[in-house]
Design a protein that fits this description.
Blueprint lengths: L6 E6 L6 H16 L1 H6 L2 H27 L1 E5 L2 E9 L2 E8 L3 E7 L3 H6 L1 E8 L6 E7 L1 H14 L7 H4 L4 H9 L4 H17 L2
């Protein structure tokens, strides 16, 4: 935190993001215990399979909880710090200064989102920076109002060069690329190579 900067709110994804995964994990555990007697009757390989399923499901749940806790954004009175954890050893951190935010827009679609109060939050930024969207977060309307109010209270002082580099378009793009699978990343590389050849 810089001088006179304070944390206003730490925002996580809504639990609806992980509940389906937890439900399937618990279902697999129940099925494993349901078949325990049959597996144990098969000898050593049945015991190994029974234990392996338990270990795998517990590891998956712990990984799910870890990623849920680490993927968040922190709202301060001066900036938004977006922390994106895509694996145990890979993460991206982007900073968006509030004096670059033109408008925050909350989007709540569907009866489920309305009942459980979750949705997306899009930030429209000044300059060449494209809009940034946070998906399936709790109470996006309240956050929209808070971010718009904080952005309006920001002074027009210029951002220092070393601070501005934190929100360069390339950093924002790399933050999104990190969430893609290998095939999608290879497709992006092919398209960039085609663009470079066209510009030669």
């Amino acid at each position: 935190m810089r001088d006179h900067e304070k944390i206003e709110e730490t925002v996580y994804h809504h639990l609806v993001v992980i509940l389906p995964h937890l439900f399937v994990s618990v279902l697999i555990l129940v099925l494993d215990f349901f078949l325990m007697y049959y597996l144990f009757m098969q000898g050593w390989w049945g015991v190994v399979l029974f234990v392996a399923v338990i270990v795998s499901v517990v590891f998956y749940i712990l990984r799910l909880a870890f990623l849920y806790k680490k993927n968040r954004f922190i709202l301060t009175n001066e900036r938004i710090i977006d922390c994106e954890q895509v694996g145990f050893f890979e993460k991206f951190v982007n900073e968006i200064y509030l004096n670059k935010v033109i408008e925050a827009k909350a989007m709540v679609k569907g009866p489920g989102a309305s009942i459980f109060r979750y949705g997306n939050l899009k930030l429209v930024l000044d300059g060449e920076l494209g809009p940034i969207e946070f998906y399936k977060i709790s109470d996006p309307v309240s956050l929209q109002n808070k971010i718009n109010a904080l952005a309006q209270n920001q002074t027009a002082e210029p951002i220092k060069k070393d601070q501005a580099t934190c929100a360069r378009p390339i950093e924002l793009i790399m933050g999104e690329v990190g969430a893609l699978n290998r095939t999608e990343k290879e497709e992006i590389i092919r398209r960039i190579e085609d663009l470079l050849r066209d510009n030669e």
